[in-house]
Amino acid sequence: MSSYRPTIGLEVHAELATKQKMFCSSKNDPLEAKPNCNVCPICLAHPGTLPTINKEAVRHVLRVGAALGSTLADFTEFDRKSYFYPDIPKGYQISQYEHPLVSGGSLNGVAITRVHLEEDTARSSHAGGASLVDFNRAGVPLMELVTEPVIHDAKTAGAFARELQLLLRTLGASHANLEQGEMRIEANISVSKDENFGTKVEVKNLNSFRSVERAIEFEVARQVALYERGEKVVQATRGWDEGKQETFHQRFKEGSADYRYFPEPDLPKLMISEVPEFSLASLTATLPELPWARRERYAALGIKSADIEFLISSVARTDFFDAVLLELKDSSDATSLAVNYFVSDLAGEAGSITPAAFAKLMRMSTSQVLSSRGTKDALAILAKEGGDPEEVAKAHGLVQVHDEGALTEAVRAVIEANPGPVAEYKAGKVATIQFLIGQAMKATKGAGSPGALRELLVKELG
Question: Which of 93, 235, 326, 408 is the most exposed place for a label (fewest CB within 10 A)?
Answer without folding.
Answer: 326
